[in-house]
Write a structure and sequence with these properties.
By secondary structure, this protein is mainly α. Among the domains are: 48-116, Tetratricopeptide repeat domain (Serine Threonine Protein Phosphatase 5, Tetratricopeptide repeat, Alpha Horseshoe), CATH 1.25.40; 241-311, no CATH class. Helices cover 71% and strands 0% of the residues. It has 21 helices and no strands. α4 packs antiparallel against α5 (81-94) and α14 packs parallel to α16 (281-295). The longest helix is centred in the N-terminal third of the chain and has 25 residues, at 20-44. The relative contact order is 0.08. This is Tetratricopeptide repeat protein.
Length: 390
Amino acid sequence: MLLSPFSVGDIGAQDVASDTGETSAKGDSAQETTDELLPMVAEERSPGWLLLEQGKRLYREGDYGEALRKFLLARGSGTYAPEANYLIGSIFDTDNDLALAVSQMREALDQKDFFYDQNDVYNLYMTLANLYYRQQNYHEYEATMLKVIRMELPATPETLRKGLQIRNMLQKQGIDNVLYYYDDSYSHIIPALNELSLYYYKEAHYNDALRLSLYSVISTLSQGIGYLKQEQYMTLIPQTPDELYTINPEYIIDKLSTDLERVGIDYPFEWDIRDLSLKNPKEQLAGIIAKIREVDPLYQFSLLGYYLNSLEQYPVTWELLDKNQLYRQLYFIGSALSIQGHMDSANNILNVLNYQPQAGEWSFRAGSQLRQSFIDKQIPLGVLSVQITD
């Protein structure tokens, strides 16, 4: 309870009568002080969620001091203490005070069961992992990333066995078979899979890098293809070029025509594949692919390219590919396979990227890998930053 800065009992009647002007001035001062204090009282009584939202707005506007004050008030409200600790840590992160940021994030993590939105717990773990990485505390970085991944991929014998099977299939049979037989999907762990897989690549743990990258790629493509099937943009999933021909002859004809032109094979073969009623598509398509490989020994026709071209056509699925960094992950899978000596599987992926304009930077890098295999040192790691949104 706030008390008035003046007590009526301390002011005698004679003093009041003899110095009305002074009393009036004091009264005005008291009113001004009360007017200043009332908003502070109201602010302290504001609900925690409102203080958090006000603090977020101030943070986005660059007023970090006022944002910090709002977050501290929100923490004092009790209900939103975990969120407040996370946001206070983000202030220290912005100020590059990594030790204090880590301390706040860990305090928030101790209260993770009380987050109003449990999805924020994933962001908290990822932010903390990034802080550890910037501190060069790689042991804690890896451990924190694994905690995120195990929220959807528990470290059970079954999960480990499946990961080994997928990786072996990729190495020996290629990406098309993996995508045909596996369609797992994950909700929140894609960023952790992506970042930790690149860390393993950097540390030359290529088997682990492949396993985590594959989970990410399979999930992204499964979600994208699932959307196309749901919207009836795609009805069947082909496993071989001749199966694709029966589903979408226009695509395979245009694709092979383009590839023939790219390697400089002239029109007789183009006329072969432009016949939409191929009598024996399996043999004829295999013959055309073999002819291209005479000029470009690394060439492989991959159904991965068909999936990517299909997904690139629709805003929803294109946004999914971009958000989940699919092209980057495919590139590093191809590079890791190449380093391990699984050249057919590596070249399959790298060729697709090389001929995929939408892959941008990763198309260029894939072309470089095809010309001369190398360990890519330009690994975009440790660049996650705190994002405070509505």
